[in-house]
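REQUEST ID: PR-0412
SUBMITTED BY: lab tech R.K.
PRIORITY: routine
TASK: structure prediction, single protein chain
INPUT:
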Amino acid sequence: MGLEAGTVRIIAALLVGCLFVNSISGYNMPQPPSPQTVTLPCLFEVTQGGSDHPVEPVERAQTVSSFYNYYSDSAHTPFVEAYVSVLYLYLDTGSSKLYFVFHFNVDGSGTPDALTDVELQGIPAGASVAVSDDPGEFNLARNPQGQFHYFTNTDGGALGPLPTSSEWTLKVDLTHYGPDPARYQRWVDGDGTHIPLSMTGQVTIGSACNKPPVANGGGPYIGTEGSPILFNASGSYDPDGDALTYSWDFENDGTTDITTMNATVSHTYPDDFKGRAKLTVSDGKLQNSTLADVGVKNVPPSITFGSVTDSSEGGMITLQFSVTDPGADPVNVTVDWGDGLPPEFIGTWFNPSGQAVTATRTYGDDGSFPLEIIAADDDGGVGMLGGKLAVVQNLPPTIIALSFPATADEGSHVDMTATAQDPGSDDLHFTVDFGNGDVESRVFYNDGAGPDPPQSPLGAFPFAATSTFTAFYPQDGDYAGELTVQDDDGGGLGVAFSIHIQNVPPTIIPFGPVYVDEGSPGSMTATATDPGNDSLSFHWEFELGPTLDETFPATGSPMSATSTADFLYGDDGNYTVRLTVTDENGAFVVYETAVIVRNVAPTARIVQVNRPGMFTLRVAGEKWHDVEGIFFINDTVLGHLRIVRMPGSPDDQAMSTNVTNLFLSANYSARIVYTPEDDPINGQPNGANPVWIMVGSPGEEPVRIHHTFNVNHPGTYVWEVDLTPYVARLAVRFKAAAVDPGSDDITFEWDFGDNSTPQNSTVFNDGVGPDPPESPGGTFPFTAMAEVSHAFPGPGTYAVSLTVRDDDGGNSTTTISVVIHG
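STATUS: complete
OUTPUT:
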């Protein structure tokens, strides 16, 4: 490969040296890390003496100076060994640059001195000092270029970059000397192997470059998925005549599908493909690639019909068929069931070959529905199969629940709750004949909106509907009815039922008690209802009161009637009222309440306050003399009396004024005139005439005021008297009227306001005796009158009060002010 003669001998010597070195006690050769592979077009060889060694660079993804790490005290690279001279090629995979590296290592415990000279011959163009461990020790401008003096650490350098695609030869002479020089010399291969070298003798490093082959993939290639295509690479060749291997990447996806020594190869694409196949030919060292156009067409899947079953609405249809696809495609299978829904996705099968498929469907309505099976691969290929029908039969509905009472009361609304179910999606029509003339129908639409079309497989199914129907039975009796349910396709059924309606007594709506005042008319109203169409009779019974009856004819169901009973109670109390209401069938109800009669206090008024009185003039003594009396009220003449003393009792000759009301607030006086001289001729001039003024009321002892006139008195004698103090001593008469709205006794209680004993009097309602506790039939309203006389002790103002009481504690009081002048 262009290397100098004698390399075989050097290699042999090196192998002997290697065996010798490896036998040194304590030798431990570290293994470098695995190289990072970079393919170079050239091969490398190391020769010393008669030994040749094919070698590869040590590969790292870092620069040579970074890898060398010459700033370290001793461990500059991973290949450092004590007293060992190490040589190798280094490839920076980041930049694909190649270097020759050498370093000389001493024991870490120190050495007194060591030197190495490196002389290079045939340095390739472009190469220079890449690393000099110590500045100036590696210099291409002198000879030897490398002059290293190292004491307690490592020394060395790197030359490069070296050509990687052209051939070159580099000769290296290394001389180790000094007090404690290196003892071993080795080459480090790219895989970490240490190749022993002699400490003396020139080391030659050379490169030999192979020519790459030429690839020809043929084509273009056309085919269908699932069928083989023959690929032909026979147009490929190697300039060096090397044997070739053919590697095919049929999808050009970076993955080699096959490597063969044959120029032709068959390949089946599992799926349609449009692209290129990549051919790579290799002579074992170098390789070359090319692309060939490939077009693979898709093939649609196929469907084979199996069978389809018949069913009834709400039942399941079973469809069976098989699917085949020649390619490795996923095939989506759908079925259009002809019911108006989008095709149903059944499943996906990859590369099916006679794949058996079973699909099921439930239809909500009867009819014949066209079926269509669709198989579609992922490349747009579609297989279809139609012309088959799913046949679905109608089924009648069923009643799954029915609620209806066996008995009920007259006048009641009776509910029937029925639940019917259709196995399909039909509308449901309910009709109920209750046997009493009531017929009720109701339709339940499956879609809740309108009538079911002839075919409605997409409706809700099974379709159930629940409805409550209500009938009214106004009269008792036995009734027979029927419930019918039909679907919209003619299916239906009927169920008979019966009910006994029983009579129910009427009901009285609670009322009362009624509150009323004694003596005031009242009424009590009651409403009774009967659930049936019955006439109602009311019978009223009032305790200590009237009994009333009233009948109302039937007017419908429910029957309701209202009766009003009038009453009048003359006395307070709680009186029981019993009402009995009976329907025309004799059923009755009794209700009791009360009339609560409240006592009302009597009212009173003082209707009259007067002081009846008269003035009497009495004369005694000498006969035939006359006395004239003039009586005044507030200086107004009230009366005029003239008496001539006649023989006989003077009492018989006394004269009185008319009885009149002597006003309490008036002043009274009298002027008595005695004129003896003009008396009749038979009157005697001697003697005297006693005169009395008597002030009194009828039936009472009068007050007497006395004066005696002397007959011999000359002229006219006048006696003037202030009668007011005497009138004040007369009794005042009071008259009162009391009214009680009831039939109570009335008691009058007088208080004259002068600390005298009050005067009481009672007027009985029946005029006989005390009123019993309850006397609603007595006289009412009851009016009573009372009169009383009372002489006040003297002049003054007196508050006179009258209290009237009934026998039930009711009372009222009236008061007047009485002023007595005196």
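NOTES: Confidence is low (pLDDT under 50) at residues 1-36.
REVIEWED BY: pending
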